[in-house]
Amino acid sequence: HGKTTLTAAITKYLKGAGENEENRTLGSIGNAPEERERCITIAIAHVEYQTKNRHYAHVDCPGHADYIKNMITGAAQMDGAILVVSAADGPMPQTREHILLARQVGVPYMVVFLNKADM
């Protein structure tokens, strides 16, 4: 639904704004062949970026129900979460489970990013 695309867009924007040295492309984040073929995130990807005020360690976690254990591993390290929801498809069956898991492992802040709102 756009989690990896959002991660790539954040690094591209910050590089253009002079806030970050690295621009991570979509292919460099979701780099496993199966991820590219199926358009899903399987493995956790760590992407770091810097602004004038903060350092971010961004963890791109899988959203697909089959890889929920990988999502839990990533969530255990988070200070906050961005929940990506497709406006075209709406919340997926596992969306509620992701919210509950994030709360259970102590993620204190959550932002909902509504993606594909133009569709």
From TrEMBL:
Transmembrane segments: none annotated. It holds the Pfam family GTP_EFTU. It comes from the Bacteria. Residues 1-119 form the Tr-type G domain. GO terms for molecular function: GTP binding; GTPase activity; translation elongation factor activity. GO terms for cellular component: cytosol. InterPro entries: EF-Tu_GTPase (IPR050055), P-loop_NTPase (IPR027417), T_Tr_GTP-bd_dom (IPR000795). The keyword Protein biosynthesis applies. Gene3D superfamilies: P-loop containing nucleotide triphosphate hydrolases. Keywords: Elongation factor, Protein biosynthesis. PANTHER family: ELONGATION FACTOR TU, MITOCHONDRIAL, ELONGATION FACTOR TU-RELATED. This is Elongation factor Tu. It comes from Candidatus Hakubella thermalkaliphila.
